[in-house]
């Protein structure tokens, strides 16, 4: 088992639709934020195991048991839907992701399509249960039978009619939503912080609509579902072995001076030039977030506030992210003699 992973027992499995199930874990001791995800290890006859990321759909503030929601889509998701039962055990990595509101008291505009509702549902439950914010949700699906959390959303809207508005979009009735149509729906709420999750074409249309309304990019948050090419559980185990076997090794270049702001604290470290940022932070005992460790997700993203790094691989950040100083810690090596980063 990877050093930072843990095993959780399944308390219940809830059928949300014919294609989607929520897996409820038998614990209340999981420290996560609304909109974050878990990386789950799934057994495989071909390669031992694979890893996939699944968003938490529960609220961390309600006292309810944490749950992830899984929609059938490939080997790993199908295996979970077919094989996980109450009493099953699953190995997970710590909760990760930055698709989470800064405040539960702020009014939000939410766009979701298909299983993209999962992290959005966590945000909805958290804001309504423990905040004062008003929420407008635009939720697109293929048809009425595909609507995950249909009953839960109906109940929440009935209990909070002045704070939650849900606008359903059904492809079977209205066709695929266009940028112009989503812009029209967003116009009355154009000043709100926005969260977008769903298939890539939907996210592109929604973000384009929001930008055309003048919403600053810093107030548009997106969550991209990606299929991990590697296995972060096995990568973590290899990195632990590598770290132990090379602790005495020194590089020809002098190390970089690294200043890190994480979880409200600041530390200054020496950073070897040949050591990836994430690996070094974990070696130093810092609780830096991560998931795939291969540059295929944004769980380890941080901001360079001074200095410069180079990324060995990047499959998720766009040019605007990079221009804003965002980098992937799992792929970053130092270039300058001093580097400062922030996870805040």
UniProtKB/TrEMBL annotation:
Alphabetized SUPFAM superfamilies for the sequence: 2Fe-2S ferredoxin-like (SSF54292), Ferredoxin reductase-like, C-terminal NADP-linked domain (SSF52343), Riboflavin synthase domain-like (SSF63380)
The protein's required cofactors: FAD
Keyword Metal-binding: yes
Key word Metal-binding present: yes
FAD-binding FR-type domain boundaries: 3-102
An example molecular function term from Gene Ontology annotations: metal ion binding
PROSITE patterns, sorted: 2FE2S_FER_1, 2FE2S_FER_2, FAD_FR
Protein name per UniProt: 3-ketosteroid 9alpha-monooxygenase subunit B
């Amino acid at each position: 088992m990877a050093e930072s992973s843990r095993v959780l027992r399944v308390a219940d499995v809830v059928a949300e639709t014919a294609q989607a199930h929520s897996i409820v874990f038998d614990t209340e001791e999981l420290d996560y934020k609304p909109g974050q995800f878990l990386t789950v290890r799934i057994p495989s006859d071909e390669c031992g195991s694979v890893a996939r990321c699944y968003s938490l759909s529960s609220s961390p503030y309600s006292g309810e048991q944490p749950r992830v929601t899984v929609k059938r889509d490939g080997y790993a998701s199908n295996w979970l839907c077919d094989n996980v039962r109450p009493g099953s055990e699953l190995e997970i990595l710590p909760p990760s992701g930055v698709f989470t509101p800064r405040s539960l008291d702020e009014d939000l505009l939410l766009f979701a399509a298909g299983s993209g509702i999962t992290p959005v549902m966590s945000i909805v439950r958290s804001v309504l249960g423990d905040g004062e914010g008003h929420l407008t949700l635009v939720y697109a699906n293929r048809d009425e039978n595909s609507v995950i959390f249909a009953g839960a959303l109906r109940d929440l809207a009935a209990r909070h009619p002045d704070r939650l508005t849900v606008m359903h979009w059904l492809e079977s009735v209205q066709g695929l939503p266009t940028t112009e149509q989503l812009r029209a729906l967003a116009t009355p709420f154009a000043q709100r912080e926005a969260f977008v999750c769903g298939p890539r074409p939907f996210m592109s249309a929604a973000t384009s609509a929001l930008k055309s309304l003048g919403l600053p990019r810093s107030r548009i948050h997106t969550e991209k579902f990606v299929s991990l090419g590697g296995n972060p559980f096995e990568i973590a185990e290899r990195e632990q072995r590598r770290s132990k076997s090379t602790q005495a090794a020194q590089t020809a270049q002098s190390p970089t001076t690294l200043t890190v702001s994480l979880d409200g604290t600041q530390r200054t470290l020496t950073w070897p030039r040949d050591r990836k940022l994430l690996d070094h932070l974990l070696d130093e005992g810092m609780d830096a977030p991560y998931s795939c460790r291969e540059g295929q997700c944004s769980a380890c993203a941080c901001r360079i506030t001074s200095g410069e790094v180079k990324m060995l691989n990047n499959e998720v950040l766009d040019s605007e992210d990079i221009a804003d100083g965002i980098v992937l810690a799992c792929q970053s090596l130092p270039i300058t003699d001093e580097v400062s980063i922030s996870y805040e």
